[in-house]
């Protein structure tokens, strides 16, 4: 092994690479590249594998056939490399129907016992983006509820009308910024926009002036 121009004796790794080892990223990349090439060979048709560092996503069409095959491949790789898949951090997301998660979980336990503890969910994160059929629900309800609760808290302070209006404008701008970052051009943005306005103006009456609504709508080309 050559490090910084100097030759060293060979090193045998018995349990992966050591924490903090300067060679760890390179060695992991070399091992992962071999695994990803084998996974790519196993997949066919519209099935693909995407990976960056240790974040990997496989899109499979017939999971009843592909999951057991992937499980066998990973078991073989783990035996050779001493690296292992953390199944507790692995999420299976059915893209067609999200109402059958329990059935999918039961089927996975039957056809793929090695991955029986794999979590089945209607949404999940990949590179910070929420994906899956339930992504829209999980992406919108949480932030809107969060902003609505904050707005209600601010209104309970009995601040002046002007300051309350300013506060709500800030909330609206924050939500719209979140919307545009999450989805560049959502088809139902105007519906979400109007919903956000209603949620962010709690209390008696609407504290956001009509001029503010007109200005914000014009900024996003809503008529």
Automatic annotation (TrEMBL):
Reverse transcriptase domain boundaries: 1-131
Domain of life, per lineage: Eukaryota
Name of a matching Pfam family: RVT_1
Protein name: Reverse transcriptase domain-containing protein
Source organism (scientific name): Polarella glacialis
């Amino acid at each position: 092994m050559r490090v910084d121009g100097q030759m060293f004796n060979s090193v045998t790794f018995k349990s992966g690479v050591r924490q903090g080892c300067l060679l760890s990223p390179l060695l992991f990349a070399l091992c992962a590249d071999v695994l990803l090439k084998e996974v790519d060979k196993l997949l066919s048709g519209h099935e693909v594998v995407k990976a960056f560092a240790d974040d990997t996503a496989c899109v499979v069409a017939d999971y009843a056939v592909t999951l057991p095959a992937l499980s066998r491949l990973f078991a073989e790789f783990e035996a050779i490399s001493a690296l292992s898949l953390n199944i507790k951090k692995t999420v299976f997301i059915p893209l067609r129907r999200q109402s059958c998660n329990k059935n999918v979980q039961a089927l996975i336990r039957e056809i793929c016992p090695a991955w029986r503890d794999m979590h089945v969910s209607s949404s999940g994160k990949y590179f910070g983006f929420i994906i899956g059929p339930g992504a829209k629900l999980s992406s919108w309800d949480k932030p809107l509820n969060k902003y609505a609760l904050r707005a209600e808290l601010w209104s309970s302070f009995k601040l002046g009308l002007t300051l309350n209006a300013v506060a709500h404008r800030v909330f609206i701008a924050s939500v719209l910024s979140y919307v545009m970052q999450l989805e560049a051009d959502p088809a139902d943005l105007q519906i979400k926009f109007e919903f956000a306005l209603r949620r962010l103006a709690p209390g008696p009456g609407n504290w956001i002036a009509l001029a503010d609504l007109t200005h914000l709508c014009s900024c996003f080309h809503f008529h």
